[in-house]
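JOB MANIFEST
job_type = single_chain_structure
chain_count = 1
residues = 138
[input]
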Amino acid sequence: MPGLTHCHCIEDEKRFRCELCGLIYREPVQNIKTGKCFCKSCVSNEDTADYRQDNAVWKEMKCWTVHCEVCGWQGRLEKFESHLCPLKTDVFQENIYLKGRLAVEEQKKFNLLQQMAKLEEKLLVLEVSQRTHAILLW
């Protein structure tokens, strides 16, 4: 599972975001060659010998005050995942999925309206052209 979703940190968390998933670290690990941190699950397919658990980062993060975007719970980051029940998480993920589907449908509708406007414009040009041609024939 990538970084923490539906978790809003009150602290400035930009430097605690995984470069791979873009979310707040979940089980931060550090690449011993580059010094960069990632979520443990984001680098699970890579050579794990190049990574070590980053306890310093976790120690700093776990004291953050966070709130849950699903239910409004507020508390320390280290307690965040334990407060989530699977039902809340499933409902939230379904909500994200449905919003994505709605956006796709809205884009399709917008594209169809644009195509319809172009066709109406062409039809208008044809009507004007026919009238002009009819006048010239008189």
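[summary]
The first strand starts at residue 7 and ends at 9.
The chain has a mean pLDDT of 80.
exit_status = 0
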